[in-house]
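Subject: sequence -> C-alpha cells, single chain

Hey, anyone have a minute? Need the predicted structure for the following. Not urgent.
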Amino acid sequence: MIGRIRGTVTYEDGEVVAWQARPRDVKRLEEYARRHGYKIEEGALSPTLGMFLAYSALGIEEGFDVWIDRLVDVEDLTDELEVVDPFPSGASREG
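Reply:
Had a minute. Here:
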C-alpha cells in the first residue's frame, strides 16, 4: 500500500499552498534525515521533517533554511492519510 502524504503551508503574506508528497519526496526526506541524524518514526514526523517533506513536495528552489523563515504554519494532513492499493482488483501483478 502507498500512502499519500499531503498538507498545506501558510506563508507570512497569508498565502496558503497545498502540497502532496511523491515517492521522490519521501526519498529526499530519508536522505535529509540521515544526513542530519534525525530518526523517522513509523506514522509520525518531527516538525522539521514535516517541513522538509513539504519543501521537497513543493519543489522550492531556495534553500530550506531560507524558505522556512517565510512560513507561519505547516499542516501535515497524515491523519487524513489516503491509502491506495497499487494492485486494484483485476490488475495483474505480473509484468
